[in-house]
Amino acid sequence: MYKTKKKKTRVILQMLPISGTCKAFLEDMKKYAETFLEPWFKAPNKGTFQIVYKSRNNSHMNREEVIKELAAIVGSLNSENKVDLTNPQYTVVVEIIKAVCCLSMVKDYMLFRKYNLQEVVKSAKDPPQPHPKLGNGKEAKLEPEAKLNQNDPSEGKNNQQVVPENNEELEQTKPKSESQVVNEEGAKPELADQVTEGSKSNENDHS
Question: Helix (H) and strand (E) counts for the chain?
Answer without folding.
Answer: 7, 5
